[in-house]
Amino acid sequence: MKYTLAVVASLIFALTFAQTDADNLKKIYTTSLTDGMSYQWLDHLSNQIGGRLSGSLNAEKAVEYTKAEFEKLGLDKVWLQPVMVPRWVRGAPEFAYIETSPGQTTSVNICALGGSIETPNGGIKAKVIEVQGLEDLAALGEENIKGKIVFFNRPMQADLIQTFEAYGGCVDQRYSGAMEAGKYGAVGVIVRSMNLRMDDFPHTGTMSYGDLPNSQRIPSAAISTNDAELLSGMLSLNKNINFFFSQNCKQLADVQSYNVIGEITGSEFPNEIIVVGGHLDSWDLGDGSHDDGAGVVQSMDVLRLLKASGITPKRTIRAVLFMNEENGLRGGNKYAEVAKSKNETHIFALESDAGGFTPRGFSFDCSDLMFSKIESWKPLFKPYLIHYFEQGGSGADVGPLKDNTIVLAGLRPDSQRYFDYHHASNDTFDAVNKRELELGAASMTALVYLIDKYGTDSIPNESQIKD
Q1: Short-list 113, 115, 191, CA closest to 151
Q2: Model pTM?
Q3: CB-count burial class (<10 Å; 0-12, 13-18, 19+) for 251
Q4: What is the pLDDT of residue 412?
Q5: Per-residue model confidence as pLDDT tens digits over 287-341
Q6: CA separation for the pair 384, 216 (Å, rounded)
Q7: Which sequence positions are flagged as catalytic?
Q8: CA neighbours closer than 13 Å in the CB half-sphere of residue 55
């Protein structure tokens, strides 16, 4: 009889806690959707500040603004973490055209890739050789490449449902194309934009010369998908057409910037730290609303939503707005470096850097055992249509925190439209849906609430959370 009573008492205890969790998640989602701040903050970042390239005046303004907003929330701590960042400037707008015969030209849309050198005064005009990937260069050899512009035209693979997989499958030509083509004597590189849609927007992104000598470094630019198709079609008819492009970008000396950090100190386990974050910098072509203004304001709102929902965290919750994810990862590396030097204990880190679209769930970088425990929370998220719980990557900025104990995670919104805007001039505030952004902020807060409540060592099993 005593055993039966004990079992009943245990079941009642578990169901009570499950109902409490469900109620708290409902409160979090309701607060975000009816009284959220993420959209308002993003409006200011995007429309009052704009693109926030590392080392720029706008990046500095974004640091000042987000720090001030953190301070308004009445957090336990707000501070700036200094970090030296690269300063690359685009200069005057780029210009390019295809020349089929003297005086017969067609203008096309290009943009310099981040980190590229400028073209010589007056630009570059040369014959074009089209390739599908880096491996084609060795097959062609210097005799077919020297003195020409290499046109990398491998598209993102359209039949891959996971669009980040499609992006990963062709981004090497953007990152390493100029470095590799320069070794064969090419005079410039044009890369098809990383975009699944056909449009006229060139998409920038970081590139690298590695340890290539300055004498072999060549300018590199992205071309819109529509114009990539045009150039390819014209080359199929006439291999002797010329391509001209001009750009004025420069790499300047490093400058000091900051990670912006806000914290609610844990009431029971203040030395156990949970991080939420996004990167404050963006490319300069648009205003960086999806990449990654959305992740910044969602991370900020995690702290506000916890407070507004009357939840007192047991563990320390930090929102970290990382600087320089786009062209250096200096902010993420600096944060991890300082955390290690202070012997801080980070148990969980969640990053939002996949746009402000409808949240689908999360990916987790953790052990199989830990993932099976986290996955038991899925029933709590089902009412909010959060179904995607998978093992996988987390985020670039939280990656440097990885060790044998921390759980890393990434918010996973619907990604089908993300690369329509990624690194392009149409990544602007009007492309972000208010409700979708707020659902993402709520989902992040809900996950942080559960991690904070149960820790990463005592996550309840599925029978304890059914409601």
Answers
A1: 191
A2: 0.93
A3: middle
A4: 98
A5: 999 999 999 999 999 999 999 999 999 999 999 999 999 999 999 999 999 999 9
A6: 54
A7: 325
A8: 17
The rounded distance, in Å, linking the Cα atoms of 171 and 222 is 12
Residue 230 CB: number of other CB atoms within 10 A? Answer: 15
The pLDDT-based confidence of 18 (bands split at 50, 70, 90) is low
Place of tokens 């880190």: 349
Phi first, then psi: give them for residue 333, nearest 5 degrees: -65, -40
Spatial contact of 296 and 104, defined as CB atoms under 8 Å apart:
no
| Mean pLDDT across 223-230 | 98
Which amino acid would we find at residue 112?
A: A
Q: What are 197's two structure tokens?
A: 């849609």
The answer to whether 271 and 410 are in contact (CB under 8 A) is no
Q: Which residues contact 108 (CB under 8 A, 6 or more apart)?
A: 96, 97, 98, 223, 224, 227, 230, 231
| Euclidean distance between CA atoms 33 and 442, whole angstroms | 8
CATH topology assigned to domain 91-248: Glucose Oxidase; domain 1 (3.50.30)
Q: What is the mean pLDDT of residues 246-274?
A: 98
Binned at pLDDT 50, 70 and 90, residue 19 comes out as confident
In the chain, where the domains are located: 24-88+253-464, 91-248
Instruction: Take residue 282 and report the two structure tokens written for it.
Output: 């963006």
Superfamily covering domain 24-88+253-464: Zn peptidases (3.40.630.10)
